[in-house]
Structure formats: structure tokens, C-alpha cells
């Protein structure tokens, strides 16, 4: 029996009729069994005092008394953790009862499939739904982390998604408060290996950033229909987490940037709550409202250094991410809040990211040909007109490119009418997308330390220039360029081929 079958929820048809009319604590009438597994049995019950149905998790102790002690303490921790949280996306814990040598947790009954169920039944989900689920789970995690609680097992099977859009994060049974001693048993891996953050694989304690990584892996699963790092054995799975970088094939724009930003290997370089929240709001086509900083999260002010994400180990033979923004509404949402929060700084000494350049009318760079490699230095005033073969010596490469605006179903007139969102917003959109790609499989991890990169974006005048038939998307595009830090020649193409 899997852990998924012990959740405090489930469609009515999954309820099994209980034998006899058991009453717990003189109050809760057990109506039927919802599921069972290694941690115990989950019952549907009727609270005869209040008159509502609830879910009751009955702890199932192994025979070994030392295991029973550990599991009992873990269940009490679940009650303490869940009882301290107040967020619409957290399953509410109502009560804890000890009776006749058994321990019961009484909690909210939510009749909804899990995210794992949805993906198994329907395949990859629409981007807007993924973003909505992600935003609500993020809210639950933020509430938990503010209370000093780390979930430690964020995964699709622990997220319920109701038809009306409600989302619930459940199973804080292995969560722990940051100020409590951590429960461990010999040889035990607490959490699901395929969703475990790299720092936990290294043996470090779980931290809030670890939950954010797990959320990124969960959203990847919802987007692609596969578990990014799951392999045939636990050892292979843990090795993949530390050495491989997954690639996205079905989502683009702000949702892709959010997922990749959560899957940065170094926890100190992962996206903050505010950046992820704003990207997920943008992916839904809505305006994100700023969230007041908490827990020491600083606010980015105009003029601060551009976004940098720490490098993540990656394999060369994985497909590069194709980056673009998915809808007109994205621009407004991005302007409204993507960069209100602080992007975690890269490790000291990481100076790969260089200031953004502009192209077009009154721009700093002239664009001509559509090649990927050029024999000019990566600096202001260059002319990208004559491309060279990437198999020959060159000084710079294009490692990502795309449209800042992608309106597939709109007319050219509608696309052209979109107001220029401002230089700061345009710069930071391109910086985020270039940074995510630079730290993905598109650029070999072992070579990043010797490279610099710069985004190139249109000027305001270029943005507003009426496009010709030959270059209708030209004035709304961006490029990501890289070169050697020492300015030396690149003998062969470093990056995987840019589409």
C-alpha cells in the first residue's frame, strides 16, 4: 500500500465501510476506511458534536517499541505543525486523541484527487493550471516557513486539487519545526528521494529552500508528465539530482523561468518567494500584488545589480530551453511585481553576468545576420552583422534568443499596440531568462566559470518602431550572448544549438 492511499481525503467511492460503529473519544463516529499504509489507517468520520465529516488518521505502530516511539513523536509533531498554520492551502488539523493505546489525528476532510492522480489520468496539465497550483502551494509553504516549519515531503501525491480550483498541501507528518531536534532513525531517508533537494542528498538539514526545490520538481512533473530525477534505483535517483539538469519541452515564458529558478542547485541561489509568486501570477495572466518582505527577504531597488543564479551541474546532451513569454498579459504582470523581491545572490566571485545591452534605434549594438557565432568582442558598440561558423574560432556566441512578446492568436496590429513596459522591466525580463538558460543544460557546467554573458534587448524606440513584413518580431526580441572572460577565442561552439 502506498503512502498516497493514507491521505485524509478521497472521492466517496474510495471509502470502505467500517465493520461496526466505532466511536473515537466519545465524539467521532468512524464511517468507513479511506485508505491505509505503513503510517496507519485513514478513516472518514462524523464529528457528532459539530455535525461535520472529518478525516481521522489512526497511527499504526510497528511491533518494535523503539519505532513506535519515533512514529508517535512524529505524529505529535504533525499535530503541532498543522495546528500552527493558517493558510487556505493547508489541510487543517482539528484535534488529537489518544485512546486505548492508539493515537488519532482529526483533520479536515477534503474530497479531491491529488496532483499525482490528475497527471496520471490526464497527462501534463495546462500551464495556467500548473501556475495556479504552484502559487497556492507556495502560499502554504510561506506560511509554514514563517512559523518555523519545513514540510520536507512536498510532492504531487501530497497536493490535492479540487475541481473548483482549491488546492491543499497535506501530510505534515514528517515536517519538523526548525527549533526542535530532528527525528532520525538509522538508515532512514525522510521524504521522497526523487523530490529531495540536493543539499539534503549531501546530508544537510532540510531548510525552507529545500521545500522550494521540491515544489520546482513537483511543477516540472505537472508540466512534463514525468518525474525529473526519478531513476530505477534510489542511488541512481540521488545521483541524478546532483549531476543532471532537467529540460522543459511543454512550457515557456514565466512558468518555465519559475520552475528553473526553483531548481537551482545551490539553495542560497534559488528564487525567493516573491519572484516565484510573481512569475506564477504572470503565467496565469494576472497582476501580482507585492508581498511585504518577511524573514529577512530584502526588496530590490532600482539600480541594484542584475539577476544572477548560481551554476547548477548539468549534462551537455540535454535539450536547451526555448524561452519566450506566452501572452500579452505577461508584460503587465511582470512590470507589476517579478522583481519586487530579491533574487538570491550568486556565490562570492561569480561575475559572469554583465550589464544588459540594447539594440535597434539609438541602441548600443547593431544586429544584422541571424547567426549564432561572431568574431567580435562582447561589448558595447559591436556590429552583429557577419556571422561565422561556430566550428571555427569566434569571440561570442548566442546561447538563447526569443520574443519578449509572443501573441500567437493575435493580429500584428494587436501585438504592435502593446505599450512599452519600460527599460527596467524589459532588462530584467531578459536577465531572468538568460540567467535561467545559462545555468541550465544549454551551457556546460564545467565551462561556466570561464565565461561571461550579457542580454541584448530593444530600445524603447525600437520597440515602438512599426515592423516591416520581413521582421515583424524583430523589434520585440532578445538575445543572450556569451564570451570568454579573458576575451580569448572560442575554438568550437560551447553551447548546445540555439533554435
Rg for CA atoms = 25 Å
How many strand units? 18
Q: What is the CA–CA distance across the termini?
A: 45 Å
Order of helices and strands: EEEEEHEEHHEEEEHHHHHHEEEEEHHEHE
**How would you sum up the major sheet?**
7 strands, antiparallel
Percent of residues in β-strands: 15-25%
The CATH C-level class name of the domain at 3-108: Alpha Beta
Shape: elongated
Mean pLDDT: 75
Query: What is the helical fraction, as a range of percent?
Result: 25-40%
- Low-pLDDT regions: 1-19, 177-189, 287-350, 406-412
Can you describe this structure?
- A hairpin with a 3-residue loop joins strand 2 and strand 3.
- This protein has a domain at 3-108: 2-Layer Sandwich (Phosphorylase Kinase, domain 1), CATH 3.30.200.
- With 499 residues, the protein is α+β, with helices and mostly antiparallel strands.
- The protein has helices at residues 65-83, 115-122, 127-146, 198-201, 208-224, 234-243, 253-262, 273-283, 328-337, 412-416, 423-438, 460-463; strands at 16-17, 23-24, 28-37, 40-47, 52-59, 93-99, 102-108, 149-150, 159-161, 167-169, 176-177, 357-359, 366-367, 373-374, 383-384, 396-403, 451-458, 477-484.
- It comes from Amycolatopsis oliviviridis.
- GO terms for molecular function: protein serine/threonine kinase activity.
- This is non-specific serine/threonine protein kinase.
